[in-house]
Amino acid sequence: MNAPLDQRDRWVPPGVDALPLDRVGDSGWNALSDLLFPVLVLKDSALEHNLAQMAEFCRRHGVDLAPHGKTTMSPQLIQRQLGAGAWGVTAATPAQARLFRAFGVQRVLLANQVVDPLGLRWLAAELQAHPQAWLCCLVDSEPSVDLMEAALAGAARPLPVLLELGVTGGRTGCRTPQEARAVARRVQGSRSLRLVGVECFEGVARDAGDRVDGMLAGVRALAEDLAGAGAFDEAPEIVVSAGGSAFFDRVVHHLAGGWDLGRPVRVVLRSGCYLTHDHGHYERLSPFGGRLPEWEPLRQAMEIWGLVHSRPEPDLAIVGFGKRDVSYDLALPRPLRVRRPQRPPREAAGMEVFQLNDQHAYVRVPAGDDLAVGDLLGCGLAHPCTVFDKWRSVPVVDDDYGVVGAIRTCF
Predict the structure, then answer these.
(1) Is 216 within 8 Å of 200 (Cβ atoms)?
(2) Cα 144 to Cα 307: distance, rounded to the nearest angstrom
(3) β partners of residue 303
(4) What is the Cα–Cα distance from 85 to 58, expressed in whole angstroms?
(5) Residue ranges per domain, the chain?
(6) Is beta strand 403-408 parallel, antiparallel or unpaired with respect to 302-313?
(7) DSSP annotation of 70
(8) What's the CA gap between 172 and 313, in Å, rounded?
(9) Coil, strand, or helix at residue 317?
(10) Per-residue DSSP letter, 37
(11) pLDDT in tens, 120-152
(12) Contact (Cβ atoms closer than 8 angstroms) between residue 261 and residue 250
């Protein structure tokens, strides 16, 4: 997790071997002149801005943050999120939860139903071995409760679970309040599970207008209904969780404050992509600077830099990065800047990445642009979740691209 850098880290200069991760900032490297290309970089000032802004947003609204760790799978970045006040970390799988525990995370919210017997037994063993740890997962059907009960038979501590509310045509989660109440009753009758709250992922309703608000209002109504029926009587507090990176403003509108359920209510956001933000998907959807104009926009921390390899046609450049290096599931990279030795940087005006191969980007170039072989092209990226998993490590840079550190990923 903190393994030294070596030739397996593709951006590291030749001749470097076993460089401790915490010594990278002493190297004196500049990412745009001293590293191998292509190189993905994280801009430290943007990370700091985004960490501070999300922490302040949660503080003002009286909610907690358990950022989704699957975005980065990086012990260094997760520790920065915890250091900025995150209450815990969200996982998608038992394997991710196991890694986050190895990173030293005390609270892990596994935002999926777990029906893998081995994963369930690991959760039970971890809770037994570490009484101070808090681990939970989701439930959304009576058959799943039965499967979990069978796998956890004999566990020393009940596994905390959140009841998931879904939406028709969406992903997982109970589709109706009646179904949710039936699942809650089944959990109450279980010896191995303990119902501690309710949950949804409102992002599955994003293309359906006011369905996001309806889904969140439904979560609140369900929590109140179940509390009135005594479903949380064995829980010291009620956890209500929602909030990806696109609609956390709607989550706090519907769920932050005003609870009267006879015990404390902890509202937990699970936003993950706020940390790096992006040029595209979350740039369009983020509440900051959009639906929340009083807040500064988040800043894009992630860029890819590659060399122009060929200008085979007047309006075409081939640049040395591709699908092995960047995300392409939600949008193609966005050209931002061009650099050439002995010239000031300039905007990549009118350029467009229109196709990717494994290691090459096809860039449409405006007529008359003097982009040349050997120039550096820097691009912004959409959807950080599918960028981090392509890199074993990533340098962190200052605003002049001086390397101030590095992070590991553990996919």
Answers:
(1) yes
(2) 51
(3) 41, 380
(4) 9
(5) 21-43+298-408, 62-273
(6) unpaired
(7) G
(8) 49
(9) strand
(10) S
(11) 999 999 999 999 999 999 999 999 999 999 999
(12) no
Which H, E and C letters describe 243-270, residue by residue? CCCCCHHHHHHHHCCCCCCCCCEEEEEC
Dihedral angle at the C-alpha atoms of 121, 127, 128, 130, nearest 10 degrees? Answer: 140
**Overall pTM > 0.85:** yes
CATH number of 62-273: 3.20.20.10
* Sequence letter at residue 211: R
Structure tokens at 254: 């519907």
Q: CA 330, 336, 340 angle in degrees (round to 5)? A: 140
- Residue in the structure block whose two tokens are 């969140």: 216
Q: Where are the alpha helices (DSSP H) in 266-356?
A: 281-285
Q: Are strands 134-139 and 107-113 parallel, antiparallel or unpaired?
A: parallel
Task: Give me 191's structure tokens.
Answer: 């010896």
Please provide the CATH number assigned to the domain covering 21-43+298-408.
Answer: 2.40.37.20
Contacts of 360 (CB under 8 A, 6+ apart): 309, 318, 319, 320, 321, 322
State both tokens at 200.
Answer: 């949804």
Residues 6 or more apart whose Cβ sits within 8 Å of residue 143: none
pLDDT digits (tens, 9 = 90+) for 371-404: 999 999 999 999 999 999 999 999 999 999 999 9
Give the whole-angstrom CA distance, residue 152 versus residue 115: 10
Question: Which candidate, 347, 343, 402, places its Cα nearest to that of 377?
Answer: 347
Residue 302 burial (CB count, 10 A): 25
Write phi, then psi, for 153 (nearest 5 degrees). -55, 130
Q: Give yes or no for a contact between 195 and 188, defined as CB atoms under 8 angstroms apart.
A: yes
The two tokens of residue 223 are 């929590």
Handedness of CA 219, 223, 229, 230 (dihedral sign): positive
